[in-house]
Amino acid sequence: MAEVLGSARLIGFVGTADIDRSRAFYEETLGLELIEQDDFACVFSAHGTMLRVTAVPEVVHAEYTVLGWDVPDIRETVRALKANGVSFRRYGDMGIEQDEDAVWTAPNDDLVAWFTDPDGHVLSVTQFTSA
């Protein structure tokens, strides 16, 4: 099978109804490096991966995670995000048991916590503990 996109760099996209509000969230709250902004998008570097937060007339919400970060210490990350004003989601109605930090332990012992951006997109942080 021919390699088509296997060596190409991935670009992430997320829509926003308020580009300035989203810029503040992704740059100041999450700490992503702003590369450029114009009337159409804010472009960030997420540890070398391009993230385009694109202006859209209406945001359509997905009920699942659209962006996630692999973090070395989820507890430290959750505490830092909370200190920056981030609220973490709880999914007790789905049968997911989360601890006092809103961290869920997956069956393979990976640790996950979810939060939303200003447009309601579900984002996550994960500490992979499995090999």
Task: Explain how this protein is built.
The chain has helices at residues 19-29, 74-83; strands at residues 11-16, 33-37, 41-46, 49-55, 65-70, 104-105, 111-116, 122-127. It has two helices and eight strands. Helices cover 16% and strands 34% of the residues. The protein is α/β, with parallel strands linked by helices.
In the predicted model, the low-confidence regions spanning at least 5 consecutive residues are none
Span between termini: 27 Å
Based on CA atoms alone, the radius of gyration comes out at 16 Å
Helices and strands: which structural class? alpha/beta
| Helical run tally | 2
Main sheet record? 4 strands, mixed
SSE blueprint and pairings:
Layout: E1 11-16, H1 19-29, E2 33-37, E3 41-46, E4 49-55, E5 65-70, H2 74-83, E6 104-105, E7 111-116, E8 122-127
Parallel strand pairs: 1-4, 5-8
Antiparallel strand pairs: 2-3, 3-4, 6-7, 7-8
